Structure formats: C-alpha cells, structure tokens
Structure prediction request, 227 residues.
Amino acid sequence: MSRSSIVLILVVVALVNMPLVLATWTRSSVERNGVEVQAEINETKNLGTSREPSWWLSYTLPESIDPEQARWSAEVDAATYEEAERDGTVAVTAVEGEPESAIVAGEVRSSTALVGTLVADAVMLAWGSLLWRSRGGRVREVMTLEALEDVAPAVGGGSWEDLVDGTVRVRGVVLEADQHEVLLELGDRLVRVVLDGHAGAVDVQQGAQVRARRANNPNGPTNPATR
Prediction:
C-alpha cells in the first residue's frame, strides 16, 4: 500500500470519528466543570407509542446559564419524566454560557452516532485490508535511481527498460512527487527517482517516465552527452 493511500485512509478515519470524539470530550468537560441547576419545564410529551414510549421534555435553563432563554429539549427515562411533570422542573448540569452542551438528569442518550461511527470504521478497515491485499500484503522494496533527464508525462502501464549504455528507462504511476524526488509504481515494483537537479513537474496518480541510472552505480554512463 502506498504512503498516499495510508494517509488518505487515516484522514477519512479521523474525519469520521471526529464528531463522536468531540461530543464525548464536550460531555466530559461539562461533567467536570458544570454546575447543577433546576431547569423550568415548558412541555412534556410522549413522542413514541404506548408500547414503545419516548419521553421528551422541553425546558428553559436559568438566565445565568442561558441569557437568551431559549427552549431546549431532551429525551429522558420514565422516572425523570414523571418527576418533571409533577415538580415542573428537572435537574440539569450545565456550563455558564454553553446551554447547548447541558446534560439533563435521566437523559436517554442515542446510540445512533456510536453505531454509525463503528460501521464507518468497519468499512474503512475493510477498505484498508483490500488495498493491502491488492498490493500483495507486504512491504515492497523501493529501488533508488538517479535521473539523467527531466521526468516527463507518459501513458501506458509500468515498464522497466535496460538501455545499451547501462542506463534504464522507467515508466509508471506517480505516487509521490516533490522538488527532490519522484516515487513511481511499476506494477509490483516501486522506484524512487532522485531528480539530482532535473525537473519533476508531474502530477500524483498520473503516468510518468524518465531515463536514469542505478544509484548504486556511481560511475554511470561515461558519455557526458547522456547527462
């Protein structure tokens, strides 16, 4: 698996898990730093059925917590619902100025976000496994070459051609590229081309070719014209 594929998978996994991580961190922060207050009940309602009830409260937080006095809602268990109907208030833990993160006593937390995140993680794991297996399930050796000319765009599959002067011409898909080197994929072979002052203006995931010499052959071609 190429480094770019690994980075892509890690970025996607981070994006998928970020909402759940942030929600968990926010709840933990409220539990540590929040204060318990009594919120005024505006409305109570069963949004489910008689067999499968879903008890919901609409409440307003004290002005010290929520200066705008907005109405907030939460699903709670049956005992909390009955107490709220009877007393007209419900206990809430909140941080001043952050009413949206308040935690209602007896709150029923939805598992939808957790399940969705776990499913997405499973998909990413399967995707990564398929990529790994498609690449042979092993770390491929990288051969290093020194460029003898500018790296040029090319079409066609990966190839390695030994030339009569002892140099080689390689063609493959660009996996990585910067001002110093280009990493090419030639089927089941990876080749890192050190530019050594030559241009490497090629796009990642595009075809490219270059004439080069093996890095372990310091003599290289003796004809200066080959440079």
In short: The chain has a mean pLDDT of 83. The CA atoms of residues 162 and 176 lie 23 Å apart. Helices lie at 3-33, 78-87, 112-134. The two ends are 33 Å apart (CA to CA).
